[in-house]
Amino acid sequence: MRSGPGAAAAGGQRAPRRRLRRVAVGAALLLVAETALVAGATVSTSTASASGPAKVQPSQPSQTDIFEADMAWAAKRAKGSKAWAIVEAKRTKKKVVVCR
Fold first, then answer.
1. What's the rounded Cα separation, in Å, for the pair 80 and 93?
2. How far apart are CA 81 and CA 73, in angstroms?
3. Is the alpha carbon torsion for 75, 79, 85, 89 positive or negative?
4. Is 4 left (phi over 0), alpha (psi -120 to 50) or beta?
5. Dmax over Cα atoms in the chain, in whole Å?
6. How many whole angstroms separate alpha carbon 40 and alpha carbon 45?
7. Who contacts 1 (Cβ-Cβ below 8 Å, separation ≥6)?
8. 81, 96 in Cβ contact below 8 A?
9. Of the candidates 91, 92, 94, the residue with the CA atom closest to the CA atom of residue 71
10. Are 83 and 74 in contact (CB under 8 A)?
11. What's the whole-model pTM score?
């Protein structure tokens, strides 16, 4: 321990300096980690495009496809529903009435 007129001031300054050093070291480590992640993502992206043709993303289904899939799902699970009646009418080419 120090003794003398500056002892109280030096002791009071150690804790904030230590805390400041810890924050600075933490920030530096975080920066290094982010840089490594970005560099890794860049390398993996560049090697993927150099190794072969680009992969095509699957396209989204059209609204018609979605509607038809929904109708088929409803027709299988809810006999007597509106969806069932519509699908049944299309299948049999006859009018189908749903009574509720």
1. 17
2. 11
3. positive
4. left
5. 106
6. 8
7. 7, 11
8. no
9. 91
10. yes
11. 0.31
Taking a C-beta distance cutoff of 8 angstroms, is the pair 69, 87 a contact? Answer: no
pLDDT in tens, 36-94: 778 776 655 555 555 566 677 788 889 999 888 888 887 777 777 787 788 788 888 99
To 10 degrees, the CA torsion angle through 46, 48, 52, 55?
A: -120
How far from the centroid of its chain's Cα atoms is residue 58's Cα?
18
The neighbour count for residue 81, using CB atoms within 10 Å, is 14
Contact indicator for 83, 70 with CB cutoff of 8 Å: yes
Distances, alpha carbon 34 to alpha carbons 21, 52, 78, in Å: 20, 28, 52
Q: Write down the H helix ranges in 52-98.
A: 63-77, 82-92
Q: What is the mean pLDDT of residues 24-43?
A: 77
* 90 touches 83 (CB < 8 A): no
